[in-house]
């Protein structure tokens, strides 16, 4: 069994209205030091034993479902299988 | 200027309907190896120069706004300031 940590973030060139809204709220709360906020998705996916190549599997799942590759980037880390 | 990476995740004891929905979709797409999916938020926060203690600042922002500490946990990593 393997745990894969996946990070899906908006591309740098894409505006992040949600991040801007959070930054605005933080400023109203007095946290004016905050200069930028970008918000993305963090997924923990547990994958059982499989014959398939893990990298191919994870890339496929990201590109078909978990990330919108037109506006999002993804990266992932594989935790030690246990 | 410092970049802080913040991970907000549902507590283990809390049901994750969004994660279950994604797992179901992955299974329909043929990814039956996937045994569990948990979805959280990943934030990148850029903090300008400040006199305030960074840990205190980040914890306050998480506990007041970024995480719902009743059902969510948070952790963060500070990237080298540049």
TrEMBL record, chains A, B:
Pathway membership, UniProt: Purine metabolism; IMP biosynthesis via de novo pathway; 5-amino-1-(5-phospho-D-ribosyl)imidazole from N(2)-formyl-N(1)-(5-phospho-D-ribosyl)glycinamide: step 1/2
Name of the molecule in the record: Phosphoribosylformylglycinamidine synthase subunit PurS
GO biological process: 'de novo' IMP biosynthetic process
EC identifiers of the protein: 6.3.5.3
Domain of life, source organism: Bacteria
Gene3D superfamilies according to UniProt: Phosphoribosylformylglycinamidine synthase subunit PurS
GO cellular component terms given for this protein: cytoplasm
A Pfam family of this chain: PurS
Organism annotation: Ureibacillus yapensis
Stated family: Belongs to the PurS family.
Localization of this protein: Cytoplasm
Recorded name of the encoding gene: purS
Subunit relationships: Part of the FGAM synthase complex composed of 1 PurL, 1 PurQ and 2 PurS subunits.
Keyword Cell division: no
Catalytic activity: N(2)-formyl-N(1)-(5-phospho-beta-D-ribosyl)glycinamide + L-glutamine + ATP + H2O = 2-formamido-N(1)-(5-O-phospho-beta-D-ribosyl)acetamidine + L-glutamate + ADP + phosphate + H(+)
Class of the enzyme per the UniProt entry, highest EC level: ligase
Keyword annotations: ATP-binding, Cytoplasm, Ligase, Nucleotide-binding, Purine biosynthesis
Listed GO MF terms: ATP binding; phosphoribosylformylglycinamidine synthase activity
Primary site of residence: cytoplasm
Task of the protein: Part of the phosphoribosylformylglycinamidine synthase complex involved in the purines biosynthetic pathway. Catalyzes the ATP-dependent conversion of formylglycinamide ribonucleotide (FGAR) and glutamine to yield formylglycinamidine ribonucleotide (FGAM) and glutamate. The FGAM synthase complex is composed of three subunits. PurQ produces an ammonia molecule by converting glutamine to glutamate. PurL transfers the ammonia molecule to FGAR to form FGAM in an ATP-dependent manner.
Keyword field contains 4Fe-4S: no
């Amino acid at each position: 069994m393997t745990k894969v940590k996946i990070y899906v973030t908006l591309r740098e060139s894409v505006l992040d209205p949600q991040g801007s809204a959070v930054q605005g709220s933080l400023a109203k709360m007095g946290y004016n030091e905050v200069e930028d906020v970008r918000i993305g998705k963090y997924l923990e996916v547990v994958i059982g034993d499989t014959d398939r190549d893990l990298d191919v599997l994870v890339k496929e799942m990201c590109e078909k479902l978990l990330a919108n590759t037109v506006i999002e980037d993804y990266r992932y880390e594989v935790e030690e299988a246990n």
